[in-house]
Write a structure and sequence with these properties.
heterodimer; A: 111 residues; mainly beta; six-stranded mixed beta sheet; globular; B: mainly beta
Chain lengths: 111, 115
């Protein structure tokens, strides 16, 4: 089973809708951020990253927004598909320090 | 999984026995990492390596040791396994440390159960 998924907040969205997953990061000195996707029984998969000199970065169907004022990161997924169902977590880092990973949010796509 | 394999993928062992997990990469990346993942926690760094024979401790290194004799292999050893070490273990790699600010790519994980 998905033991690492226990106790996670869950976001449920209808297929085709947009999803927004949020992450509050801990260190105002962090200047590099990554979003990962983790499917059941698999390792984390890189989705998109952003550096602190940017507020927004777009990929294929995904957009990451960074608000340094309130230490908040969000991942927007456009036209959510069943294959997007997974746990999503953010990671932050600053120079000389290893990554700090959030516990994640489970995204459930409803048919 | 970015040319990263982990073995074994599943392991059941008894308390007090030694266990070694292997991470193998084909990307020739300099940095390799071992993490554990537990319910309610984000990934936590156990040890990492910044080159052959060069390793350092992470956040949760007690009870674990590592070795890296070749660029492509990074071994994690539990000298005497305890039930608290039941977890899913992930190996990750990055091309350079980037001062901690470079993308890390993860392997498929090893699920370890210590009875």
């Amino acid at each position: 089973g998905e033991s690492v998924g226990l106790h996670l907040p869950t976001l449920s969205v209808q297929e085709g809708d947009n999803s927004i997953i949020n992450c509050a990061y801990s260190n105002s000195a962090s200047d590099y951020f990554i979003w990962y996707k983790q499917e059941s029984g698999k390792g984390p998969q890189f989705i998109i990253d952003i550096r602190s000199n940017m507020d927004k970065r777009q990929g294929q169907r995904v957009t990451v927004l960074l608000n340094k004022t309130v230490k908040h990161l969000s991942l927007q997924i456009a036209a959510t598909q069943p294959g997007d169902s997974a746990v999503y977590f953010c990671a932050e880092a600053f120079y000389g320090q290893n990554f700090v990973f959030g516990p994640g949010t489970r995204l459930s796509v409803l048919p | 999984d970015a040319g990263i394999t982990q073995s074994p993928r599943h392991k059941v062992t008894e308390t007090g026995t030694p266990v070694t997990l292997r991470c193998h990469q084909t990307e020739n990346h300099r940095y390799m990492y071992w993490y554990r993942q537990d319910p309610g926690h984000g990934l936590r760094l156990i040890h990492y390596s910044y080159g052959v024979k060069d390793t350092d401790k992470g956040e949760v290194s007690d009870g674990y040791s590592v070795s890296r004799s070749k660029t492509e292999d990074f071994l994690l050893t539990l000298e005497s396994a305890t039930s608290s070490q039941t977890s899913v273990y992930f190996c990750a790699i990055s091309e350079s440390g980037g001062g901690g600010r470079e993308t890390q790519y993860f392997g498929p994980g090893t699920r370890l159960l210590v009875l």
